[in-house]
Amino acid sequence: MFKAGNDNWKTPLGYYEKAIEELRRTREELQDMKANNNLHNIESTIASFQTEIKELKSELRTMQKRLANTEETAIQAQITLAETQKASLAAQAELQALKEIMTDEQKLNYKIFEELVQIKEQISQLPSQVVESDSQTSIIKSLSNV
Known about the structure:
With 146 residues, this protein is mainly alpha-helical. It is built from 2 helices and no strands.
């Protein structure tokens, strides 16, 4: 296309050509500005994303630490639970053994008591003619008190 020269701008055609050239330059400048603005927007967006990525990585590390602590606590709790269950079973077994011993002792005590009652009856049926010694008397009194 024909470019308007410096001395041609006074004619209507030169005036139009000069206006067209200025519009073209302005459009190019606007496109450059738009490109620079887009580039600036992209750069700020990238910076924003990078900041967000750093924050997310930090949060991820924190969560991983918390998860590790929670897992460790859970493992310790399971170990403690297992130890407690083992101790509980041992205590239950010991309690059962003590119950059996007490039951056996109660049976023996009852048997002894019955035998003492029988002995007491036998002694009371003895003829009164038997000479009682002091030791026999004390034994009878002891048995009577039972």
